[in-house]
Amino acid sequence: MAPSNASQVSLQLDEDHAPETNGRMPICRRCGFRTEENSSRHAATDEHQAKAGRWLDSQALAGRVAKARGVLGS
User: Where are the domains of the chain?
Assistant: First the structure.
């Protein structure tokens, strides 16, 4: 998946899921990445780009495995 910049990573995180925060800290409980304090959107930084890409890849793989198990389990 290797996104080319942090804004693309942020968009991909937003597409994957809405940020879940506790209201006090701008950190998503689901993925652990920062959120924009005022807009409830992810705000991945350049330094976290690779980690976010790996997290998104693992979520995609987990989704494919779950789908395959559902098809095989029927």
Answer: 6-73
What does the pLDDT look like over 7-39, one tens digit per residue? 888 888 899 998 988 878 888 898 888 888 777
End-to-end CA distance of the chain: 30
Q: pTM of the full predicted structure?
A: 0.64
Q: Which long-range contacts (CB under 8 A, 24 or more apart) does 36-45 make?
A: 41/10, 41/14, 42/9, 42/10, 42/13, 42/14, 43/10, 44/6, 44/9, 44/10, 44/13, 45/6
Interatomic CA distance for residues 8 and 34, integer angstroms: 14
